[in-house]
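Inputs:
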Amino acid sequence: MLISATTAETETAVEPVKKASGKTLWLLAPGVIWMLLFLVTPILMMIYVSFWTQTTFKITPDLTIKSWVTFFTTDTYLSALWTTIRIWLIVLVSTLVVGYPAALYVGLFVKNKTIQTALLVLCVIPFWTSFLIRVLAWRPMLGKEGTINLILQGLGIIHQPIEVLLFSELSVIIGMTQIYCVFMVGPIAFMMGRIDQSIIEAAQDLGAGFWRIFRTIILPLTMPGVVVGAIFVSVMVLGEFATAAALSGRKVNLLGNIIVTQVGSLKWAFAAVVGVVLTLLMGIVVAALLRVVDLRKEL
Amino acid sequence: MQAGGIKLSLGVYTALFLIFLYAPMVVLAILSFQTGPEGGPQFPIIEWSTYWYKHLFGLTPPSRIAPLPINEALVRSLMLSVMTMIVSTVLGVTSAQAFRRRFPGSGVVFYLIVLGMMVPGVLVGLGMALVANALGIDRHWWGTAFVLHVVYTYPFAFLVMLAILNRFDQSVEEASWSLGVSPARTFRRVTFPLIFPGVLSAMLFAFTLSYDEFSRTLFASGRDLTLPLAIYGTFSVEVHPNVFAFGVLTTIFSFALLGVYAILMMLSIRRAKRVAIQEEA
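Outputs:
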């Protein structure tokens, strides 16, 4: 009697769980299949093709490491790799340096919630213009006869136009910083908003100055935001090619630009090698950043 | 006292920051009113005119400057964005719904989905082109490019829905079930209206991201251009103010879209409030 009651209980207890997992499976299946077919398969294909044999206009599926050897022995490719890493690091630091003070002001010093939201919306609005148009918008700003040079000359600060502003590495960095700093400001401002004001008040009551509060409370508590922002910025900058194409006048070649050129001349195997290198680079960067912060917990 | 000085300087800094964000677009908008066809994409404005706007619509006498191929591209881009929006929102809602229960392997599935927004477009685009080549499939914006757009926007829809469902009060659903309403009907009549603001946000995200997406489209779309690809095409040639005029128009379009979203959002929130009041009475 007692035994049958417990088995009946376990049966009813087990049943909904079983049912639930079946339902879960059906709910998940479409998305998972879509990602496996159209995300994982293309990446695996890219890895596979990077070992194919490349002749002038054709690739054949005879496996070889020739394309890989070419990549690591050609200056153009290697310098593109270094340029990509260098620009990524510079943009990462510049978005942080440019964005953090603004996030600090909006998140901590603006007490009025309406004004705070309005300022954040103001930061996001430029994001609503097409990315490519935002890139192009830097051309009339930075050119030799561009707005910045005109203003600086008009103010008498310079007498010769600064030519290095456009079609240089600097223009790519300026453009990328403006385009991507929003992705840094957002997560940081979000973390600022979460800080309990009473902690700061307590620190003030105990006589801590602004810098001390900043160093021991604000900076550590906003670090997850910095890391999330860094993930966004890294992922986007490492895969970039359009900004460099539009603002550097072909002087700056990122890995992305190399891929575009290679595909343009039907060198699929070389493009695939560059693609795999880029994937590895990205994987290392994102994995390292994810070790610092758990993305799922920050949601 | 010291904090006051810091607040002031940070305020000034933030103002400069906003100027840095907006200046290029403002300059671009001003220069779009440059006279044509001899006026260039830089200051000074020789004469104010709407020449380049007319040029976009083919209303100007022919000149050596080719019009942007935006007509058909616009139709393609809109269709592609709508298709992407529908599919990725449906996928996002269903998988977020699945994540409400704990299941083994949820971590792997989570990162598999999020990977879609992490992997650079140029990589999936290249991979997709290679797959299409190997299988002998023609590349089209409505095929190979479309599936990649969903790969990109579906994670956003998923994360938005996950955030909404995290804050969801499950007791309403349970009440409905215990009253004998079927799960499908409960979802339609109870769950869906409650998560609708989230669905709306997911749709907006998916639409705008797809409408603006070009790195995935570049290799995967074949011969027919979408709108961003048409703009990308101008990168390699001399830039004329017609691109600027076009930039202003697309920005206005985006804001119109944002306006529609805001109105729908307000209506759905008002409706939710009305239902709540009725129930209390």
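Remarks. Chain B has two domains: 1-67+243-280, 70-237. The radius of gyration of chain B is 24 Å.
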